[in-house]
Amino acid sequence: xxxxxxxxxxxxxxxxxxxxxxxxxxxxxxxxxxxxxxxxxxxxxxxxxxxxxxxxxxxxxxxxxxxxxxxxxxxxxxxxxxxxxxxxxxxxxxxxxxxxxxxxxxxxxxxxxxxxxxxxxxxxxxxxxxxxxxxxxxxxxxxxxxxxxxxxxxxxxxxxxxxxxxxxxxxxxxxxxxxxxxxxxxxxxxxxxxxxxxxxxxxxxxxxxxxxxxxxxxxxxxxxxxxxxxxxxxxxxxxxxxxxxxxxxxxxxxxxxxxxxxxxxxxxxx
Length: 270
Description:
Layout: E1 3-5, E2 11-14, E3 26-27, E4 32-34, H1 48-60, E5 63-70, E6 73-80, H2 84-87, H3 107-117, E7 126-129, H4 136-143, E8 147-152, H5 155-167, E9 173-177, E10 189-195, H6 204-214, E11 215-226, H7 232-239, E12 243-252, E13 259-268
Parallel strand pairs: 2-12, 3-12, 7-8, 7-10, 8-9, 10-11
Antiparallel strand pairs: 1-2, 4-5, 5-6, 11-13, 12-13
Helix pairs in contact: 1-5, 3-4
């Protein structure tokens, strides 16, 4: 794989992140899109356990299934269509921390999902997604053959992920309630992935600890973030003492605003 120096000190740029065909650094939204013209997911086709979870969620929140396509891979994501009940009277304009960031389908999650969906994973490859939210990267990796664990900090988020996995006809996905500041005993994984998980610097060291704790020797970490995220550079600077870091910029084209996403690969040193 050809690499060259990037703008980040100690970081190399991956110029040939082939999976997903992000040619010339662009992600073509013709191949990553909501399948609005296709038949929507019928909740009645869910397995009984996930149908019960879906029914419980629907009693509290306004939700819908949003199909998302990566080439031949189709995911059906359970999403919140009305935030009022979820906000429960909180005003995120007054306190941004009140916003439930997990409900948003981040552009970086699309880029990472596309990349993972095109990887030729060895049989039996295990992957942990951190701060999974809607779980797009992990679900895409599961569709590509990985044994995937989606993790987040709240049972409600895991419930959404469980329904989405079942709706996407994936049975190689498990779920973990994971507090980075108080992680449980964990198995180790071949791959760790995360999209838009660097919101607050107080979580940098706990995140690095979880990575040390859960990555197998010889494993790899993939992260994806909006390049404008202020916390991205300080985290990479902290991580580069432990990891060899490579990067590739990907532009997600849209009619509203192009988004530049930095896709990072972290490999433990020595």
